[in-house]
Amino acid sequence: MPLLFLTFLVVPLLEIYLLIEIGSVIGAVWTVAGVVGTAVVGAALVRR
Q1: What CA dihedral angle connects 27, 31, 33 and 46, to 10 degrees?
Q2: Where are the domains of the chain?
Q3: Taking Cα atoms as reference points, which of 41, 38, 44 lies closest to residue 22?
Q4: From the first residue on, what is the mean pLDDT of each consecutive set of 10 residues in the chain (48 residues)?
């Protein structure tokens, strides 16, 4: 049980950290566009 809690704590923090780092390299607009783009592709795949 503690491992599951730790996983649910670490993964979102790692994701936020990576988004900030990627945003500082390629820019905030491109980072947001990438996130939205992957969400659109994911939604399209789920609808199939």
Answers
A1: 170
A2: 1-47
A3: 38
A4: 92 97 96 97 97
